[in-house]
Inverse folding.
């Protein structure tokens, strides 16, 4: 398939392809999405083929304005209005009761639908032009890290979609926070850059202890959490204290002289990391937010450099953006630390 590449000021052109039933990759403030008209069932089915994604994983639907919500959902649970007022447009997905006329392909046969309103100006111009809500998972091939810049989006989807829209590097770099109403409370299904603390300020009485850790129960409600995710080709190994990067520890983690190693860390520990390891590349960042923003693109660079092992500095505390970062890192490391 010929893929048209669009610059940021051609967002309206890219949006018109959606109306014609095509797939288009577009930027958001979180990661790039792989979009189709939510009301075009065939187009939505093609998303799964382009991604190589299991059909049991529901899609998030992206809207341009609040009016579009009425075509998707039957009701707004308590607190929704406040959440929308505080966090839209922005990286928060609300799982809401779905209208029956939205295809089961989009919701993976659940009776709910995940909806969000992106804030990225290029995404907004694109969605305005599409004139319909756009169902879109992240634009990676299934199991790979989500694309967070135009080059990664092209590498994942060139030849598989009608168009790819350039919006530069994504500001957050991690997928949106996903929350769902369980009939009594809001639960975080996937942490993201809208943090638990920010949510608690808006729906304080509802959050309390109700937010469950990633559990089996949750995996059923948010099918995406079951599938492998966010993984580069190299083996990801997490560390919290650079003092632990001793020769013995590296060796027992399977890293020998023949391996190619990269390290991602905060700048505050870079000197110690360099002293202790023979890493080919050390990518260092001022804070966790910057590390999160660059995580997937660094994973991608490590793949290009054929790194066999990627050591990643991981926050101990799980407040703010650190919760989402820990969540993605644990998945990338397959829960081994
Ligand atoms: O930031 C984002 O959310 C990006 C951009 C493109 O918007 N999208 C994204 O989509 O990450 P995707 O498909 O890669 O992840 C969607 C997550 C999955 O874990 C899925 O299971 C969950 O949201 N989800 C979607 N609809 C749901 C629903 N009705 N009930 C429960 N979980 C849902
Ligand atoms: Mg994804």
């Amino acid at each position: 398939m010929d893929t048209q590449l669009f610059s940021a000021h051609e967002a309206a052109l890219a949006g018109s392809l959606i109306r014609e039933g095509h797939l288009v990759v577009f930027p958001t403030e979180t990661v790039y999405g792989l979009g189709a008209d939510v009301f075009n069932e065939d187009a939505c089915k093609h998303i799964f083929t382009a991604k190589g994604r299991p059909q049991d994983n529901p899609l998030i639907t992206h809207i341009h304005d609040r009016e579009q919500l009425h075509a998707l959902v039957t009701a707004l649970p308590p607190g929704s209005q406040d959440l929308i007022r505080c966090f839209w447009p922005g990286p928060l997905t609300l799982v809401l009761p779905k209208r029956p006329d939205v295809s089961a392909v989009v919701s993976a046969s659940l009776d709910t639908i995940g909806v969000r309103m992106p804030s990225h100006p290029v995404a907004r111009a694109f969605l305005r032009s599409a004139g319909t809500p756009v169902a879109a998972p992240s634009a990676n091939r299934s199991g790979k890290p989500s694309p967070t810049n135009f080059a990664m989006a092209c590498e994942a989807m060139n030849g598989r979609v009608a168009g790819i829209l350039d919006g530069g590097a994504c500001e957050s770099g991690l997928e949106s926070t996903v929350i769902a109403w369980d009939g009594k409370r809001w639960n975080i299904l996937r942490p993201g850059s809208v943090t638990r603390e920010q949510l608690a300020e808006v729906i304080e009485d509802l959050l309390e202890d109700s937010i469950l850790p990633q559990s089996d129960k949750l995996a059923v409600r948010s099918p995406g959490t079951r599938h492998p995710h966010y993984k580069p080709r190299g083996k990801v190994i997490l560390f919290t204290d650079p003092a632990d990067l001793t020769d013995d520890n590296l060796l027992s983690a399977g890293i020998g002289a023949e391996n190619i190693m990269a390290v991602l860390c905060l700048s505050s520990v870079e000197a110690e990391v360099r002293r202790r390891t023979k890493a080919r590349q050390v990518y260092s960042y001022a804070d966790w937010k910057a590390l999160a923003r660059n995580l997937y693109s660094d994973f991608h660079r490590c793949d290009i450099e054929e790194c066999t092992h990627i050591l990643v500095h991981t926050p101990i505390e799980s407040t703010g953006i650190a919760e989402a970062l820990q969540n993605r890192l644990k998945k990338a490391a397959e829960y081994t630390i």
About this structure: Residues 137-138, 146, 175 surround magnesium ion (ligand 2) (CB under 6 Å). The first strand starts at residue 4 and ends at 6. The chain is about 30% helix and 20% strand.
